[in-house]
Write a structure and sequence with these properties.
Elements: E1 4-6, H1 19-26, E2 32-36, E3 40-41, E4 46-52, E5 57-64, E6 70-74, H2 77-82, E7 90-91, E8 97-99, H3 102-106, E9 111-113, E10 118-127, H4 146-158, E11 162-163, E12 170-171, E13 175-184
Parallel strand pairs: 1-9, 3-13
Antiparallel strand pairs: 2-4, 4-8, 4-9, 5-6, 5-7, 5-10, 10-13, 11-12
Helix pairs in contact: 1-4
């Protein structure tokens, strides 16, 4: 299985962004994202992610790089194609969901930190309905940190419609977010 790379994000002073105020409005499932081994990682090092939530949902991890480009790093089309699980990204309430999962690690899937060095932003998105891939929008401008990335994605996802599992009709969806800054050395 291929190795996924993480990219660097915009440099900024983390404490200047009012994420708590925004997060309260966009995190009804109480999603919590942890970056391991820490929020400071070295080029060439391996990282993983732990996610917990108060409600059941489908997890998507999005990385924002130095140019403000977003990329979905979990689940990837390759990981979905190689998995036998229909709900590979299903998070259950109160149970830590680890990315990459032990089964994916056994198949050789891992996240290796890639240059350039600096600050980056990782966003955990939890969908109430089954969603596994997002066609992320082209960025109209460069995202400047946690609050900006969260605000942009929150507004964008509020416009998305998801197929209802019983009727097949496109319906609105509830999304929850958590954002973490990390530094690549």
């Amino acid at each position: 299985m291929p190795t996924a790379s993480l990219h660097v994000g915009t440099t900024y002073a983390r404490w200047l962004w009012p994420v708590q105020a925004v997060r309260g409005q966009t995190n009804t499932a109480s999603v919590s994202l942890q970056i391991r081994p820490s929020e400071t990682v070295n080029v060439g090092g391996k990282v993983s992610f732990g996610v917990t939530a108060r409600k059941t949902g489908y997890l998507i991890l999005v990385d924002v790089d130095a140019e403000g480009r977003m990329s979905q790093i979990f689940p990837t089309p390759e990981l979905l194609a190689q998995s036998n699980e229909r709900d590979i990204n299903l998070v259950k309430p109160g149970v830590e969901f680890v990315v990459p999962a032990p089964a994916a690690r056994q198949r050789g899937f891992e996240y290796i930190v890639a240059p350039p060095t600096g600050s980056a932003v990782m966003i955990a998105i939890l969908s109430e309905r089954r969603v596994q891939l997002l066609d992320l929008p082209d960025m109209p401008r460069k995202l400047e940190g946690q609050a900006d990335a969260l605000s942009y994605l929150s507004a964008w996802t509020s416009e998305l419609r998801v197929p209802d599992s019983s009727s097949g009709k496109l319906v609105t969806n509830n999304w929850s977010f958590d954002v973490k800054s990390y530094s690549i050395k």
